[in-house]
Amino acid sequence: MAVGLFQRIGIAMLYKDALCGKKTFWSAGTTRLKTKRKSDRIDRNYSFLPIVFVIVAASTSCIPGEPLAEVLDRLVDLEYTSTELVISERGVILPTQIADQHEAVVQLRRSLRRIIPISIFFDVEPADPEYPTVPAYIEYIEQFTLACRLAKDCKIVVITVHAALPGTSYNDEVRHLAKLVEIGMYHGVIVGIATEAGRITDTPETVGSLCKHVKGLGVTLDPSHYIYNLPKPKDFEAILPHVCHVRLRDTTQKQFQTRVGQGVVEFGKLVDRLNQVEYRRALCVDLAPLPDVDQHAELRKMRLLSESLL
Question: What is the pLDDT of residues 227-251, one digit of tens each?
């Protein structure tokens, strides 16, 4: 009983450290379990290993077409306590309106008690980094900077970006990502590059190479992109130490998203592998609505599945 209470207090106190990826240890201690009879009192030594914090979250894209406050209310009803804010033309925050919505989003974040944003998905197509002086690239950098400023004021520590499309110069992409990481570091935000099919991050080897050449770059792992439309799943073991965020759905080789439990994603194995590299951030549910499927039921099932693995 006492141990459980101490753990809950510790989780509350160390929650921010966990999101920032800090390693937090509890030292060994002695707890006396008291009973009515003095002779039944037992001394037990508890050696606490490092606590691995993993948070189950849901993306705001799971409930499209609603204002941010309404989306958060629905996620709370589904018993989610953390969320990923999506900035996109279809998201709860439009890229062209980040500055206009900044104060409203920050005030909403401060008023939240039952759910908190823990990451941002900057779902904006990157401009060609080969031409950093063209208006499209300048606008992208300005919007990304505003997104990082919003993340800082909302106490969000991870922001996810898209990688370049195939055919982009590798050196140009390295310079581009280094610039994003520099902006992110200035605002205290970790930049994670999304693993996606149809982009230069469609192979774990390229992702690992980018992380090697761009100091401070993280990885937003989406296992579905290494399963769907492939003869066999790709092994992403080598990039797990770089993972700063995880996005989840169930997938098959023929269908990018299936109903929960009907795909081939080995969630238990994934969590075990993340634990081995002491992953301490979020498992973010990212389910698009499927035809003739109860979206709320799917979100609830995915949350229960994820929590059961922790």
Answer: 999 999 999 999 999 999 999 999 9
